């Protein structure tokens, strides 16, 4: 898939490739460019889980504290949301 990168800064694209390569999501092939690794989907999911627990959960906990939402209320809301999504 060919992408047009003219709207993006070179440094931003290079940092993205560096991030993907450092997380084992892409790998260079000499003279051929970068390719997804065989386990890229699992690595992406693992990276997203790490981000969820290191960034999203603390932000959620702070928002809950500010709004006076208890863990039990959150679990109840999650159960209701999960039931709706899976039906």
Written account of the structure:
This protein is mostly helical and 87 residues long. It has helices at residues 10-22, 40-67, 71-85; strands at residues 26-29, 33-36. It is elongated. Strands 1-2 form a two-stranded antiparallel ribbon. The model has no long low-confidence stretch (mean pLDDT 90).
| Number of E-state strands | 2
Radius of gyration: 19 Å
The major pleated sheet works out as: 2 strands, antiparallel
Order of helices and strands: HEEHH
Name the shape in a single word. Answer: elongated
The largest sheet has its strands arranged as 1-2
Helix-strand makeup class: mainly alpha
> Number of DSSP helices?
3
Question: Averaged pLDDT, please?
Answer: 90
Strand content: 5-15%
Terminal-residue CA separation: 36 Å
Nutshell version of this structure?
With 87 residues, this protein is mainly alpha-helical. The protein has helices at residues 10-22, 40-67, 71-85; strands at residues 26-29, 33-36.
């Amino acid at each position: 898939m060919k992408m047009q990168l003219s709207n993006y800064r070179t440094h931003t694209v290079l940092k993205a490739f560096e991030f993907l390569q450092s997380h084992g999501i892409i790998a260079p092939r000499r003279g051929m460019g970068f390719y997804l690794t065989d386990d890229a989907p699992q690595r992406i999911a693992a990276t997203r889980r790490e981000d969820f627990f290191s960034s999203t959960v603390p932000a959620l906990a702070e928002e809950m504290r500010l709004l006076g939402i208890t863990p039990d209320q959150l679990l109840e809301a999650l159960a209701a949301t999960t039931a709706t999504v899976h039906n």
